Each structure stands twice: as C-alpha cells, then as structure tokens.
Amino acid sequence: MGLLDGKKGLVLNIANDRSIAWAIADNCLKHGATCGYGFLPMEKMERRVRKSLEEMGQTDPWVQPCDVGSDESIAAFFQAAKEKYGTIDFLVHSLAFANKDYLAIGKFLSTPRDVFKQACDISAYSLIALARGAAPLMPNGGSIIAMTYLGSEKAVPGYNVMGVAKAALESTSRYLALELGEKKIRVNTISAGPVRTLSAMAVGGIDEMFAHTERKAPLKRNIEADEVGKTAVYLLSDLSSGVTGENLYVDSGFNIVGL
Ligand SMILES: NC(=O)c1ccc[n+]([C@@H]2O[C@H](COP(=O)([O-])OP(=O)(O)OC[C@H]3O[C@@H](n4cnc5c(N)ncnc54)[C@H](O)[C@@H]3O)[C@@H](O)[C@H]2O)c1
C-alpha cells in the first residue's frame, strides 16, 4: 500500500534527472501518486524533461510550461491542470533563480536592485502565486511543500541574495499556512543540504558546502536527493496531517551543529 495512493499532485519544476523535483516525483510515484509536471518554457527544456521522466517510467506524462515570472503562464498552467485533473491533493514548489554573477563569494554588497527583485520574485513570491492557483483545485484540502536551504538563516559564503530569497520563501510558507489552514491546506518547507544539481552548481562556494557538511554534520556525509524525496512523501501524505507551517531539515543534521 502506498502512502499517496489515490492522490494527484503537481510538481514544479524538473530540469533534468538530477533535479530535486525529479527525486520528489519519483518517490511520489513509488507511493502511488499521480503527478503532473511543470517546466520552464525555454529551448529544448520540454524534450529534456520528458526524457528524464521516461527514466522514471513515465511514458506519456502530463507536462505543461510554467514560467513563475509570468502571471499569464501560471494561469494557463492551472487552467490546463484543472481540465486534466479536476482536483489535486498536493503541490510541490521546487524551483528558484538568481543571477549567478552575484552568487560568488564577496559579491553580496554589489547586488543590484533588479537582481534582488528577480531572485525574490522567482524564488519566493512564486510560492504565493502557485498556492493561489492550486488552492481552488484543493476543495478537500491538500499539502503544499517548497524547497529551501540553511542560507536563509545563516550567512553562507556565496549563497548571498538567494539566502535572502529563501528567508522570504520560508516566511511566505508560514503566512500561507496560517491563511490556508481553514481550507485544510497545509504548507511546509524542506531545508535540504547541498545536492549536486544544475542550480547548485551556480552557487560560488558550493564545493566548500559539500566538504564542510561531510566534515561537520552528525551523519558525516552529504544527503542524496532521494532522501529529500522520501521526506516529501511524508509531508505530502496523511502521515503529516497535523503538521503545517514547519521547516523540516534533510541535511544530515548539519543545522544543529555549532562548531
Ligand atoms: N541543490 C541544492 O543543493 C539545494 C539545496 C536546498 C534547496 N534547494 C532548492 O531546491 C529547489 C530545486 O532546485 P534544484 O537544486 O533541484 O535545481 P534544478 O536546477 O534542478 O531546479 C531548479 C528549477 O527551477 C526552475 N526555474 C528557474 N526559473 C524558473 C521560472 N522563472 N519559472 C519556473 N521555473 C523556473 C528551473 O527550470 C529548474 O527546473 C530550489 O528551490 C533550490 O533552491 C536546492
């Protein structure tokens, strides 16, 4: 018996088979869920996403463009999801963007206004916009999760403006949890340790993050994206029915260590 048997959800956005969204979808499918997928509309992306979903055993997946920087794109995505699924039970927000020129060690002070705005828009405001699209499709309640990183709470060299955006994302998740609770919609974040994905490779100092986690985390190793996927299943399933507004760490315990 799967923990997500009979549940339908939307996963945004897979870029390739290393994406955290991919690992989450893979675990959701293993637990009996039906998933629809978003992708950032850019050249070759749809083909790449479909190929990575084939590796998961999804032969004819429902895949739709969704650029969270565009209200029209978000509206079209949820209209298509409504036509396809009618209602959904969960939504996965696993996407972020910041100009990598400013994700280098020592570059935070020079962050321009437009880079700051874009990072917060794509990485944090998008959770409000997607939750607003998803809520009407969740008449019986549901579960929304978003991915974050410790750089929201602590100053991590090179994470810079993305840390600011993640702080906004975590706070956004709590306010959404407060407002959507009466609709039985839960909203939580997962704070993942570093994982080798396309986005992670844009962060200056990423190698030090991996090395430091291995040296200092209680588990003395880095995490696998699959471990984030398993925790996501818990938060998306009824096992976590009493949990909302929380931030759950999947980081080998790194966040508890002071030295
Ligand atoms: N990899 C890590 O070390 C790590 C750690 C903690 C949290 N996270 C978070 O996990 C989430 C997923 O990232 P990932 O590491 O799997 O990298 P990834 O590059 O595989 O995924 C990032 C996704 O964001 C999408 N995206 C970017 N701009 C977008 C836009 N305007 N509209 C829609 N989609 C857009 C990309 O297309 C891509 O699919 C992000 O929120 C990231 O910050 C990653």
How would you sum up this structure, described in words?
It is built from seven helices and seven strands. It is α/β, with parallel strands linked by helices and 259 residues long. The protein has a single domain, classed as NAD(P)-binding Rossmann-like Domain (Rossmann fold), CATH 3.40.50. Strands 3-2-1-4-5-6-7 form a seven-stranded parallel beta sheet, with helices on both faces. The site of nicotinamide-adenine-dinucleotide (NAD) has 26 residues, from helix 1 and strand 5.
Summary tags:
259 residues; alpha/beta; Rossmann fold; seven-stranded parallel beta sheet; 7 helices; 15% strand; globular
Compact description:
By secondary structure, the chain is of the alpha/beta class. Helix content is 40%, strand content 15%.
Mean pLDDT: 97
Quote the CATH topology.
Rossmann fold
For CATH, the homologous superfamily is named as NAD(P)-binding Rossmann-like Domain
CATH class: Alpha Beta
- Which CATH architecture is right? 3-Layer(aba) Sandwich
- Number of helical segments with 4 or more residues: 7
Poorly predicted spans: none
So what's the overall shape? globular
Query: What percent of residues adopt helix (DSSP H or I)?
Result: 25-40%
What pattern of helices and strands is seen along the backbone?
A: EHEHEHEHEHEHHE
Number of strands: 7
The distinct bound ligands, ions and cofactors come out as: nicotinamide-adenine-dinucleotide
β-strand amount: 5-15%
- Structural domain count: 1
Trace the largest sheet across and list its strands: 3-2-1-4-5-6-7
